[in-house]
Amino acid sequence: MPATGWNALGQWGDDAVRIEPLSGGVANDVWSVRVKGQVAVARLGKRSDADLAWEAGLMQHLDRAGLIVPVPIPTADGRLFADGLTVMRYVEGGPPETAADWRRVAETLRQVHRLTQNWPQRPGWRSSTDLLTAESGTRINLAAMPAEAVARCRAAWARLAGRQTCVVHGDTNPRNIRMTADRVALIDWDESHVDVPALDLVLPHNAAGFDTAESDIAAQASAAWEAAVCWKDDYSVRRLAEVRAI
């Protein structure tokens, strides 16, 4: 999206201004901003209005339930995004460091999962079990992968078939977790979609408390998902190597 897209920031008020760029991955341009005298985070990307509306609605739902998430800050006329730009509450905190921290993360993720059963799928996305028959969805295109790799991924996802689905965060790396002594916050919901909750719970120190069998199911399915969603970069090739041959 051209840099002029940042002109949309004026829709949050005449005093809204960018401060400095933040790490936001390859899909978005992310900056700290000042809106109405408060520091916030603004993300400019190419997602559709339907996609942005899905994410904004999810953030509002989780916020009302008491979770700490980057809630969208409305424009001056009440919209939750404008011209591909979303302005969100800034969330403070640091990454998890200990096994106890990661257990708190697991419990927070399980709260998200409980609060979003029967949630509609993010527009254009597919779940891992949808991809047992579908070939594509948003960033995934199985037709671009070797047939043998697709077969391995589908074998891993087939072990999840029939399970309850919900919203998964989709990218629970430490950079997307903001912890304080009394709460756990989750940021950067770009990869969130409806899927099987086990995909969110492959965490350090086996923080979710999986037994050996469930740990294997979740780890294989997660490795297959990341191989497919990132195909074909070096990371995806490494993740595919973790998925057992059939």
From TrEMBL:
Signal peptide: none annotated. Pfam families: APH. Residues 19-226 form the Aminoglycoside phosphotransferase domain. This is Aminoglycoside phosphotransferase domain-containing protein. It comes from Devosia yakushimensis.
